[in-house]
Amino acid sequence: MNRYFFYNFILVSFINLMLYVPHILMADRYRGAVQSLIIGAVIGTILLYLYTSALARYPGKGLPEILKMHLPKWISHILISFFRFMWLYATSLAIIAFAIMINRFFNPDVHVSLILAMLVLASGYAATRSSLTVMFVIEIGLIVNAPIILFVLFKAGSNPHLNWDAIRVIANYVTKAPTLASTAAASFIFTGYINMSLFNRLMPSNSRFRHRWIYPLMGFVILLITFFVPIGIHGTEIVGNYIYIWSITADSLLMQYGFIERVLFLFLIVYLNLTLVFTMSGWHQAMEFVKSMMSNHKPEIDSEKTPLSNRRGSVRFRAPVSGEPSLQ
């Protein structure tokens, strides 16, 4: 079950390429962004170890149950409301940003509101499933899309036009003190552990968070690629002119084989999948936090009742009783 933690950490690590994290870091590239990469990694690692160590003491329980065990009801409701708003706002920001990207790069003729409505309907429907189902969707989404993202990162890092002199110029600003915005942006990539606030319910009693040292190392490597590769491709000055810097970076890459020539199309399709998965996960957590504030609510990992939307057309099987013929 330790893979659940791995999936959530990798999901947040990959989704930062599409959000505004690279743009914030590029804006401060001369004002301490390099040092913020180091400080953000240290802060993220410390918080990761502290948070997972605390959750490991309560296997099978989510954050709402833990807060109700140790805090007064009104304090726990305030904290739960904060987590609800945090996930609702963060994932809504992601799906809005991607709707704008689809409008700009895929189909400018379609109004962005229509694109956003379609994404909201898909994510909202998936978010109403059980926690176990949501985790399985995250697992399938990463298994399908993670290799393609790693391929795009490798394609960008191995680009023969990558200017290492530009990377060294920016790296020399490591002595500049970081800003609060760049430090917060750099530490975002390590925040996948916060998803375990709810999905810790899926952890069995004998589970442990193993090999935690891998996650900060992996996150720091992805963070370095996120920051330095666009600088090497676009240059030290031009890189600050783009908001969706990795979409432009993917658009500058070509594949000389296969039926997809521009990497941008592959990049956006993959991130469409990840955005829907990320939004589904965040909205599901927000809904579960709201449910936990109800006095008669009992958390459940997987719903025993089939949702009404899945009943129509379904066939139910039951074990044959004695005397009845069985299906062969």
From TrEMBL:
Residues spanning the membrane: 6-25, 37-54, 74-98, 110-128, 134-154, 213-233, 263-283
Pfam families for the chain: Spore_permease
Stretches the record annotates as Disordered: 300-328
InterPro entries documented for this protein: Spore_GerAB (IPR004761)
UniProt key word Transmembrane: yes
Signal peptide positions on this chain: none
Keyword Signal: no
Alphabetized UniProt keyword annotations: Membrane, Transmembrane, Transmembrane helix
Name by which UniProt lists this protein: Spore germination protein
Originating organism: Paenibacillus harenae
Lineage, highest ranks first: Bacteria, Bacillati, Bacillota, Bacilli, Bacillales
